[in-house]
Every structure is written in structure tokens, then in C-alpha cells.
Amino acid sequence: MLQKGTKLVITLACLSLAYYALAEVYRVVDENGTVQYTDNPPAGDPTVESVDLPTINTQPGLQTGKTVKKQEAKEEHAGYQSINISAPAQGTTIPPGQESIPVQVSLTPQLKDGDAIQLMFNGQPYVPASSSTSYNISSLIRGEHKIQAQIIDSEGNVIARSGITTVYVKRHSIKHNSN
């Protein structure tokens, strides 16, 4: 067992070694004009220059929410790895004259028995939940609209959600009528 004094000497020696690890960096140009960087320059070389390095850019760690273990995540989403609105694409503009938006939902794995897909349009259910992955949204008014799909289990609980897809519907207006 080491005595207190010995522990102190070893600790100070380790700290002093760490200090030398933060040593300066030097730029050296050899006789062929090749530039090298080193922390141990050749003694007496007239081409040695000390290099001032900028401070290291650091960021604080991100605060994360509750960590969900893989098993918990599987149970929470009933085994669905992904659910997406594959059509229309994010940011799609629906031109004047197009009366409906075809919506395609893709999910992995396929829908399980007892589960259903609920299509949401502007935050409200658009049609009753079903096993269909294809929908057609009609009676569109101009403006921005949000589409999302949810998977609902047999008890009516939402067990997975897609991201929100935003589409823009353009319609002629009397104010800006070109005819």
C-alpha cells in the first residue's frame, strides 16, 4: 500500500505529463520545401515557427428524454418499424383543376391483424380507420393542409404515427381571376 506522500508525488507527476501533452505545435520547412508540423522541432533549425492553434470548438451535451430500450420501443409501437406518407411528397403543390389528392401510406412490416390505419387531415380523422393504405382526399379548399397517418390497435390506442406531410392547394380566386 502506498503512503499519502507517495500518492501525491505520483498524482503530481501524472498531472505534469498531461501538461506536456498540451505542448506547442511547430511548423518546420525542410530543404525540399516540404512543410511538416511537429511538437518536437529539430534544435537550431531556422525554419521553425511556433503555430498558434485556435481553441477547440466544443458543444455542451444534448439533454435527452427518457431512454427507451429496444424491447420497450417494440412493445410501444407493436413492432412497426416505420410508417410514412409515401405520396404526396412533402411540400407538394396541388394545382388549380386537380380536385383530389391521392394519398399512399407505406409501413413496415405490413398491417397486423386487429390494427387499422387512421388517415388524419389537418389534425382530424378524414375517414374511419381501416386496413387500406390508399386514400383520396377530395373537396379541397385553397391553402396549406397537413396529412398524417396513425396506426390504431384493436382497443383504439394510437400505437404509431407517420411524420406530417404538408401540401399546398392552389385555387383560382375571383380577386385574382385572369379570365
Structural class: alpha+beta
N/C terminus separation: 97 Å
In CATH, the homologous superfamily of the largest domain goes by the name: Immunoglobulins
CATH topology grouping of the largest domain: Immunoglobulin-like
CATH architecture of the largest domain: Sandwich
- Content of β-strand: 25-35%
Based on CA atoms alone, the radius of gyration comes out at: 32 Å
The helix-strand sequence is HEEEHEEEEEEEEE
Overall residue-averaged pLDDT value: 78
State the low-pLDDT regions, or none.
67-77
Total count of strands: 12
CATH class of the largest domain, named Mainly Beta
Number of domains: 2
Number of helices: 2
- Give the biggest beta sheet: 6 strands, mixed
> What characteristic shape results from the CA principal axes?
elongated
Q: Key terms for this structure?
A:
alpha+beta, Immunoglobulin-like, 34% strand, 12 strands, 179 residues, six-stranded mixed beta sheet
Q: Can you walk me through this structure?
A:
By secondary structure, the protein is an alpha+beta fold. It folds into two domains: 23-52, no CATH class; 70-169, Immunoglobulins (Immunoglobulin-like), CATH 2.60.40.10. The protein is 14% helix and 34% strand. The chain is built from two helices and twelve strands. The strands form three sheets. Strands 5, 7, 8, 10, 11 and 12 form a six-stranded mixed β-sheet that branches. It has a three-stranded antiparallel β-sheet with strand order 2-1-3, with no helix packed on it. The protein has a three-stranded antiparallel β-sheet with strand order 4-6-9, with no helix packed on it. Strand 7 and strand 8 (124-125) form a beta hairpin. The longest helix is centred in the N-terminal third of the chain and has 18 residues, at 4-21. It starts with a helix and ends in a 10-residue tail after the last strand. Mean pLDDT is 78; it is low at 67-77.
